[in-house]
Design goal:
about 25% strand, alpha/beta, about 280 residues
Length: about 280
């Protein structure tokens, strides 16, 4: 029972923290109506909400739409931007931008735009496929809010892709900035990633020691049978290269010296877990 309570507590804690990010509200702006949609509490998907009927006064409409977003405690407002099929702007685009700027002037919530080409057409198509049979006015309102949901889905999808690319870029940067990680190419032209674990001097020569990079999610404490690749460091400081050691006796001597130095620095227990990579 205690274990179940702990799991539930962790689940609730995670959901609470994920929910700390404010939801997103989107507007599908038309001359007569504005479709409204909002994201779920975790900003994972879009939900059609309501339809706002315009008053003919741009300032009043902007204030009302800003109030809708603030009532939802939104962190971002996404406004659909109508463009021509070729991506150029039209008269409708400029009219929409005017209302967007008025919304920005009336709220502290960040306002962004999202290409809304084809969203209304897709919304109508969905209603047909779903077999929705409603009155004409109600159908228009449903189309408007559904189109707003399409705009928000597009924004969420783009944001997710950008976040994924950013995370991948950060991982690459972390790898490039980590001087302990190197890429070594074997005789078959295959690149292997290694972590540098040490360099020692032995009988006037320098030798480098590497271990294969651990897979993501691997147990950091699991070092049993960890293999060590040993290379001879040759050349000048500006033109150094790593060469494999063909002499097995020399390889054993160098590795033994490494273990002796490793024992002094890290402890005998850890040194005992290491073993030379015979293939290198």
């Amino acid at each position: 029972m205690q274990r179940i309570c702990e799991i539930l507590y962790k689940f609730v804690w995670v959901c609470y923290n994920r929910g700390m990010e404010k939801r997103i509200v989107s507007f599908d702006i038309g001359d007569k109506r504005v479709g409204v949609a909002k994201s779920d509490p975790f900003n994972a998907y879009a939900m059609p909400s309501e339809t706002y009927f315009r008053t003919g006064n741009v300032g009043a409409d902007a204030s009302a739409l800003a109030a809708i977003a603030e009532a939802e405690e939104a962190g971002t407002i996404v406004c659909g931007l109508p463009l021509n099929a070729d991506g150029t702007e039209s008269v409708q685009t400029r009219k929409t931008r005017t209302l967007i700027e008025e919304i920005r002037a009336r709220t502290a919530i960040p306002v962004v735009t999202e290409d809304e080409r084809y969203t209304t057409r897709e919304a109508r198509g969905d209603l047909v496929r779903m077999g929705v049979s409603v009155q004409k006015d109600k159908k228009k309102k449903t189309v408007d809010s559904l189109a707003a949901a399409y705009i928000l889905e597009s924004y969420l999808s783009t944001r997710k892709k950008e976040n994924t690319e950013m995370n991948m870029k950060e991982e690459r940067n972390d790898y490039e900035d980590d001087e302990s990680l190197v890429e070594l190419v074997d005789e078959d032209g295959i690149t292997h990633r290694y972590e540098h674990v040490g360099t020692i001097e032995y009988k006037g020569e320098w030798y480098c020691f590497f271990t294969p990079e651990k897979d993501a999610g691997a147990d950091e404490d699991d070092e049993e049978g960890e293999e060590i690749a040993v290379f001879h460091l040759v050349g000048d400081e500006d033109d150094e290269t790593l060469e494999t050691i063909e002499d097995d006796a020399l390889l054993d001597e160098v590795f033994a010296e490494f273990c002796n130095q490793y024992e002094d620095a890290e402890g005998a227990d850890e040194a005992a877990l290491l073993e030379p990579d015979e293939e290198e």
